[in-house]
Design brief:
CATH class: Alpha Beta
Structural class: alpha/beta
CATH architecture: Alpha-Beta Barrel
Number of strands: 8
Shape: globular
Distance between the termini: 12 Å
Largest sheet: 5 strands, parallel
Strand content: 5-15%
Number of domains: 1
Number of helices: 9
Strand order of the largest sheet: 4-5-6-7-8
Length: 257
Amino acid sequence: MFLIDTHTHLYLDKFNDDRDSVIQRAINQGVTKMLLPSIDSATFEEMMNLTKSYPNNCLPMIGLHPTSVQDNYEDELAFVEKELEKNKYIGIGEIGIDLYWDDTHSEQQQDAFRRQIQLAKKHALPIAIHTRDSFKEVYNILKKEATDELLGVFHCFTGNRSEAFKIMDIGFSMGIGGIITFKNSGLDEVCKSIPLDSIVLETDAPFLTPDPHRGKRNESSYLNIIAKKLAEILEMNMNDVVEKTSANAIKLFNLKV
């Protein structure tokens, strides 16, 4: 039994004091693959250093996070495009639209999202999508850009049944993380209506820590907690949930295991 954390930011400075221990704990807990979505050029070097240290465990994506879309976003997109020509990545992410923190650059975010989807199609890579207060905007762009070959995951899915079925309708997956363990999140009821074929697991470490560690730093070893909770909700054996969600991740990101 092995788990795949499809979304974790282990290269951020919150792990500077004990990064190796955090990764070893994850591996000891069966989390053998940790997929690293990019944020922007400022954190790129740290991400790549981590993948060089753990080439079999930590696998990079490349992309411009929507909250990093500023006036210089054209330069950032050029950086992404150049990296795609030079190096190998398992996906394009974390990309999308975030209208929660600041909608000043909403038009630029939509442009950056659209253009990175087009890069994903050009390079035949899946996308990891960030949506916050922006499902309508993200979905409208995806519908226009959708092809049978374009695949991806709605990272940190917390939507309703209607949104879940829209996501599945275009062949995309949903990343289920620590919020599934929160009381009154409502995500448990939504997950009961989502086929396991459409789910992958994630932590989004160091953010969105699951209970009972909520309020502390998240880490990839906690993926077991998320898998166990999902198994309880679906009334399934945990091993079956792990096996299926790992298989989904392997297929989506074309991973070698």
